[in-house]
Amino acid sequence: MTTAPLAALLPPLTLGLALALAVWLDVKERRIPNSLILAGTAGALLLHLLMPAGTGLFHTPAGSPGLASALAGFACGLVLLLPFYALQALGAGDVKLMAMIGAYLGPAGVAGATLLSMLAGGMLALGVALCSGQLRPVLDNVAHMLRSALVRGIGGAGASIDQPASTTGKLPYAIAIACGTVLHLALRDWGVWRLFS
C-alpha cells in the first residue's frame, strides 16, 4: 500500500509547525510550554497510528514503523539530553522537545538529530559570542565550569558544573534543536548518515 502524496506531507508539516512554535516561544518567552510538547507528541503518535506500515515517517514512501518505534524514540530523546539538564546546561523544555522529536524520528533518527543539534548549538553560541564581543568571557566561563567539574570529579563529589561568577547570556536552545533536526532530515540519505535514519 503506497502513501498518498498529501498524507506524505503530514509528518514534515506537523513536525515543522511544532518546531517553529517551539523556536518562536523560546525566543519570545524563553520557555517551551508543556502543552506544545504534548500536542506535538500526540501528533506524532497519531501519525504512527494512521500512516501505513513502512520504514519511517520521513522516508519515501512515508510509512510508520509502529508505535513501539515512536515510544522508543521519545524515550531515547529524553535520555540523550537528560544529563545536560541534570548539569543545568539545558532547560527541561529543551529535553522534552528532543523527546517529542524522537516520537517522530524513532531512536536512531533522534540520535542523529541530537548530535547535529549539539553541533548547531555550539556554532550558535560561538557566533553570538563573536558578534556581541563576548567571546573572551564565554571562553573564561567554559574554562571555569570545566575546572570546577574536574575538581569535583577528582574529589569524589557528584558530577555537577558550577555556574560562573558572571554570565554571558542564555541562548534559546530550541533554535539549535530545530536546525539540527532539519539538517538531520536533509542529510538522512547521505552515506554514513544513513546509520541515523
Keywords:
197 residues; mainly alpha; 6 helices; 70% helix; elongated
Describe the protein.
The protein is mainly alpha-helical and 197 residues long. The protein has one domain. Helix content is 70%, strand content 0%. The protein contains 6 helices and no strands. It has helices spanning 5-29, 34-50, 67-86, 92-132, 135-155, 174-187.
In whole angstroms, the N-to-C terminal distance is 21 Å
Number of strands: 0
Quote the average pLDDT: 85
The coarse overall form would be elongated
Radius of gyration over C-alpha positions, nearest whole angstrom? 18 Å
Secondary structure: elements and pairs:
Elements: H1 5-29, H2 34-50, H3 67-86, H4 92-132, H5 135-155, H6 174-187
Helix pairs in contact: 1-2, 1-6, 2-3, 2-4, 3-4, 4-6
Task: Summarize this structure briefly.
With 197 residues, this protein is an all-alpha fold.
